[in-house]
Write a structure and sequence with these properties.
With 171 residues, the protein is of the alpha+beta class. The protein has a single domain, classed as Gcn5-related N-acetyltransferase (GNAT) (Aminopeptidase, 3-Layer(aba) Sandwich), CATH 3.40.630. 30% of the residues lie in helices and 36% in strands. The protein contains 6 helices and 7 strands. A hairpin with a 6-residue loop joins strand 2 and strand 3. It starts with a strand and ends with a strand. The model has no long low-confidence stretch (mean pLDDT 88). InterPro entries: Acyl_CoA_acyltransferase, GNAT_dom.
Length: 171
Amino acid sequence: MNETVALRAVEPADVDLLYQWENDMELWVYSETLKPFSKQQLTQYLKGINLDIYQSKELRLMIETEGDSPKTVGIIDMFDFDPYHSRAGVGIMVHKAFRDRGYAAMGLDLFIDYCFNTLGIHQLYCSIAVNNKKSIHLFQSKGFIRAGIKKQWRKVGREYIDEGFYQLLNR
């Protein structure tokens, strides 16, 4: 595959795509979403998303293929940014139509580089359900180390499943 990806800011024109992705109930188990979002809610969210990360404590970037006809394939988030401790959570989603092409790995590489080398963040972390093998493999392939297991942390249907806590330190 010769395609590469770039990260870009979320634009107001992305509201329809975000509406589709945020309301995909198959993804709710990973995002802890419990109810649908309206386009109005997402439009309001987009108005505040481009605030300085020291104000918003989050950063959301779109993952887009590069080339003659770029496609937005996913999204990557920094959340719970803590400037004092210099750490932040990270989450990623590549739309199912674009999975298994390396886009998540390329996007995560760019994001890690940006967080560590531009923002000077000391630590990134993520939480992944133990049955989400693809996400575990992705983050471990980028150097994230499992630091612990949160027992019966996520409710999925009528069951509770464990969740791994992973960390990557900026060396």
